[in-house]
Amino acid sequence: MANPDVFVAGAGPVGLFSALSLLERGVSVDIVDALGPHLVRGYACGLQPGVLPRFDRLGLLRPLLAQAHRIDRLALRGRSGATCWVSFDRLRGDYPFMLTLRQSALEELLENALAQRGVRVARHQTLQGISPRDGRVQVTIASTHPARSEPRLGPPQRTTRESAFVIGADGSFSACRKALGIDLVELRPPRVFAFYDFHADLSRCQREASISLDGGAAAFWPLDERSGRWTFELNEGFADEPSLGQLRQLLRERAPWFVPVPEQLCWGAVAEFESRVARRFGNGRTWLAGDAAHCATPIGFQSMNQGFCEADDLAGLIAATLRGERLVGAFAEFERAHQALWRRLMGVGQVAAAAREGRADPRAMPGPSVFAHALNPGSTSPGAGTHPARQPATPHSAVRRPRAGTTGRALAT
Description:
The chain is 27% helix and 27% strand. By secondary structure, it is α+β, with helices and mostly antiparallel strands.
């Protein structure tokens, strides 16, 4: 088996997108994952306007539009009850909308696209070591096939591969990051969120999502005319598993403006989310993207969407390097730009200033302008060779602030 130009660890959405972006640039790739096929459910279910040009460039937008649900605007609801509307049709560019799609469906779409290009994911393969070797990277992989009726004798089978670069997109417990000896820096305390996928008549609000800050962060995302997802930050966790009764109670207490009545709970989960960023995004010829490089709350799907941008930027840098172009300081600029962006997205400067002045809960969420930027991720590495299809939108122009003395209107009235 020939060694690839790039070895990708992790076959979640960001890892699959990394492989597709590399192939589009003529770079050969192998991709492995420690787990089996797709998750039944996942916490991320939204694609932001700013990543859609990148999907379109890879020929993925048409199949996405056939499966995903379109969101035209987003309500940002503050603690005072005031509402700001992010109207995506006011953004520059050809993609004035968000798309919602369950993570398992997105992964299946990306993996099928990869298979059509002649690359299949090698599953149950765990990365166990990375070491530089004569201007390349040597990767050690252990096979972790699921248990069969006959127990395996001896240690897992190990193989060694070489590639010019490695992209680690293997999640928050990244083996690639650990092999590099890179730790995660906590930017905010951990927070607990409950997820509720439900059925209801959403015909009157199926194109409108909502993020609320009243009593803790919460978000509503329509998935189609008959189903949606509510995500609530839990200040005091529930002792029981998520239930339809819990969802209705939370809606009464924290989203009384929400008119549709949930009829059935399809799926629920409770999970803790950290707010951390890797001390470095990589070095030499091994780089991180997505959850391997950062952990964030699930409210706006920032970690996944920014991960797509990081993967695409890295693919551009790697392809240019393999073509023999001299990119002096380009990877260092990638590192600097994405580190700065993540600190902005997490509102680190705002939180630090508020804490020094003793005027806010240090877990307070960033303001509407930060949310608006987060919903329009774009290339943060000038000269990275990503050749985005169009100029990134200007997010501030999309934020509609309510008039003095008004609170905006509910999603369904």
